[in-house]
Design a protein that fits this description.
- It contains seven helices and two strands.
- By secondary structure, the chain is mainly alpha-helical.
- Helix 2 (about 25-40) crosses helix 4 (about 65-90), helix 3 crosses helix 4 and helix 4 (about 65-90) crosses helix 5.
- The protein is globular, with a radius of gyration of 18 Å.
């Protein structure tokens, strides 16, 4: 499906497998972006791709069982957990509805799993307070639009 990502250019950067073995996940996400940009059929860099197209590339890799794509979703889960802990100090929420295409498929499940792990390990007092919810697959993709449409009118 994403064979264009596997093309090699002689004399360029090392292959991703070498980068993966030499670096941590956060630096790898940056290296993966650079690698996708180099190999991408849409042009020389990721600027040629819309955010939705970039997401499709990562989701395609995830569907193929690529561990590098899974690392991206786990990183999102880590950032989400730390963000939720910070926001909880201000807003004292108990329920979080996660929407958007990035939450679709196995990647969304990885985000939830990793977020839950970080909350349990680093914010144990919040882990039982905060409930993360995913709607069904169809609503995840269009849920942001539905949520925005349901907001009350701002009257001046």
């Amino acid at each position: 499906m994403f064979d264009f990502l596997k093309r090699k250019r002689p004399g360029k950067e090392p292959e991703l497998s070498a980068i993966w073995e030499e670096t941590d996940e956060n630096r790898f996400v940056t290296a993966l972006s650079a690698h996708v940009a180099e190999k991408c059929a849409y042009g020389e860099d990721l600027a040629a791709l819309s955010p939705a197209e970039k997401l499709k590339v990562v989701q395609g890799l995830m569907d193929e069982g690529d561990a590098r794509a899974a690392a991206i979703y786990r990183s999102i889960g880590v950032y989400l957990a730390h963000s939720l802990a910070l926001y909880h100090d201000m807003y004292h929420f108990r329920h979080v509805l996660l929407l958007g295409r990035v939450m679709s498929g196995r990647g969304g499940e990885l985000v939830i799993e990793e977020c839950g792990r970080v909350l349990r390990d680093e914010y144990s007092e919040l882990a039982d307070m905060i409930h993360l919810a995913l709607p069904d697959e169809k609503f995840r993709r269009v849920g942001q639009s539905a949520a925005a449409a349901s907001l009350p009118e701002n009257r001046k």
